[in-house]
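Students often ask why we bother predicting the structure of a whole assembly rather than each chain alone. The short answer is interfaces. A chain on its own may look different once its partners are present, and contacts between molecules only exist in the joint model. In this exercise we take two input lines together and write out one structure for the complete complex. Read the inputs first and try to guess which parts will touch.
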Amino acid sequence: MQRRTLMKATLTAVSLIALQATAALAENTVLKIGFVGVTSGPAAAWGISNQRSMETRAAWINETGGYEIGGTTYDIEIVSFDDQKDPKRAIAGMEKMAQEGIHYVVGPNVDDGAAAVRPVAESNGIMYFPYAFPKSLYEAPASNAVLGMVANYQSGPAIYKYLMEDKGVKTVAFIAANESDPLSQRDGGVEAAKALGLEVVSDNVTYQVDTTDFTPVLTPVMRSRPDLLVLSGVSPANAPQLIRSARELGFQGLISTETAQDAGVLAEGAGDLANGFISVGGASTPELASPMMNEFVERYTTMFGEYNDESNTKVYALEYILETLKADPSALTDVGAFQATMDSFEAPNPYMNGDAKLRYVGMSSFGQKRQVAVPLVVNVYQDGAFETLFVAEVD
Amino acid sequence: MEQILANGVYLGSQYAMIALGLTLIFALMNVLNFAHGQMYVIGGFVTYTFYGQWGVPFVLALVMSCVTLAILGALIERFLFAPVIKGSAREESTMLLAAGIAFFLDAVILLVFGEKQRGVPKIVDGVFNYDFRLIMPYDRILICVLAILSIVAFIGLMQYTKTGRALRALAQDRTAAQLMGVNVDRYSMIGFALGAMLAGLVGGLLVTITGVNLGMGGPTSIKAFMMVMIGGAGVISGAIWGGIILGFMEAIGLALLYQYGDITYLLIFVSLMIFLAIRPQGLMGKPWG
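Now the answer. The structure tokens for the assembled complex follow.
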């Protein structure tokens, strides 16, 4: 009898909670935003930081009453799809987004996935925000892709120029994983370095993406004795091992990359050997982060147990989508309206101190505004944290 | 040349350890354990948690990795492989089960340990540098020595203990071993646990050098299969030779062929295909299985 009573009480409680949840969801209309990217395998950190950034911001918005667009308040729902870094899966993911009536998608994370989904996105009226650098994705006649970060061919020259002028760098060596993204970033970096007058002393050493011991890989690079070692397109998993191996082999020059990294991962994997490592970040350092950015970091940490510094750049895509929709509510179902709004859109950047703006850029690189204006923050790692080296803008 | 030899010995010893557990399980149960790489990763994460996070002495953390993986291996054998082997005569049933376990463990690793690369403090500081002709950090030398000692201990266990003799008998002829009074079920479980423990041990050792992340499992399994194929499936000495050969091929290729791009593994795979076409049973394997 007691057991029956307990079961009844449990069922009643569960029903009440379910009803409450339904009622809470029913209060606001739901706006679905998609994510198609890699959340498993060796590159999982890239996509998971994307997905978790979106989920953190969506939960925050929903908790504080929703997001108002054109007089209607929306709860934000993130619909995620793991493409496993496989272009075929990325296409399937974008098709799933189309079937769900989603018009705005963040991702994919890599070049081939971003290129593969283009026909699906363009034929189904989906704007997507890849973290991939090929210019053909963003140049006309391509229309629906918006670069979600700063490309290596934009950050690389800025970093090299700074290091030439401030650190007297004259020679540079490149090393990249044997994959399309890092290789294309290496080629872009070599081109930029040569254009600036740097002597490229090594650029043909590559490594398997699943390499765990980099000492044999780096040994020939170290023989070229460069002033600067560039880890082209390096993943956060490989960066600490490469830095550690280079330093253990006696390399005393500068090391840099144009990808975003995580200070905790560098601290654990390379410790003090990572001091002086230069990478690209977002509004992460104390002097740049606004109170809203700090709250985002707190909420992310509360939700997932640990923050990922890569999210400093990945916090932006969802904000851009929502702010642009707010600027023109007709874009909720019409990506043509979204594209038209992009040309003149401007809003305050809530994640940075000062008067930074959210706006679309890319005229110089792509001939049309198909890039979010993420601040080009170049960081240097020092004793477990990033310090801002310099801040620049992409036009 | 000195650097190539040193890199070859270092890579060969760690590869041999990775292959040992895989080939042991194959020899005992005729199971291709696709989850071997994931077991290696769990071993790394356990050492990371105990040594890197909780400050437990490294040796104790290493023991915890071994114990955790031995228990995990025993449970997997008892509750998953043993029933499938008894209930199905088809070899692909165990292959599918092993693949399923690999995917499952990947998901568990992501949930428990997260997506980030993890690393631990160095166990020994400093770098051995012989006139820039041979550079080897002391922690790599230590790990290499520990790996070689572990291999020697494992061979000793297999050769000179009752358990080792029973496992060898089981590997040679399961039915005959049973007729001679070997408790097949018990020693299958012990063998699987031992294989998993070796994966945990090498994972725990190498987390101090390479760190660990959830994506390392699949590629580690593939390399382990390559070593086993080179040496001969199910042969302990074959796994050791397979590891050493692969380690040296990698060290030599990376040192001499770097100017041609990343062709080392291309050549290794081509060599493996040609080798297997000529000698499909591997170096030490027997043509009849």
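Check your guess against this: The longest helix of chain B spans residues 58-87.
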